[in-house]
Amino acid sequence: MTRTTTSAGQAGEAGRAAESARAGESAQLVSTDPADGSVVATFSVDGPAEVADAVARAREAAAWWSGLDFAGRQRCLLRWAAHLTQHADELTELTRRENGKPLDDAYLELVLTLEHIRWAAKNARSVLRSRSVSPGPLMSNFAARVEQRPLGVVGVIGPWNYPLYTPNGSIAYSLAAGNTVVFKPSEHTPAVGRYFAEAFHKANPEAPQGVLATVQGAGETGAALCRSGVDKLAFTGSSPTGKKIMASCSETLTPVLVECGGKDALIVADDADVSAAAEAAAWGAVSNSGQTCVGVERIYVVRSLRERFVEALARELRDVRAGDSYGPMTVPSQVDIVREHIEDAWSHGAKAVVGGSDSVRAPFVDPVVLVDTDEDSAAVREETFGPTMTVRTVDSVDEAVELANATSYGLASTVFSRNRGMEIARRLRAGATSINSVLGFAGIAGLPFGGVGESGFGRIHGSEGLLAFSRPHSIARQRFAVPGMALMSFRRSAATMRIIKRVIAFRHGRAK
Ligand code: NAD
Question: In the structure, which protein residues have their CB atom closer than 6 angstroms to any atom of ligand 1?
Answer without folding.
Answer: 157-162, 166, 184, 186-187, 218-219, 222-223, 226, 236-238, 241, 244-245, 248, 259-262, 293, 383, 385, 411, 451
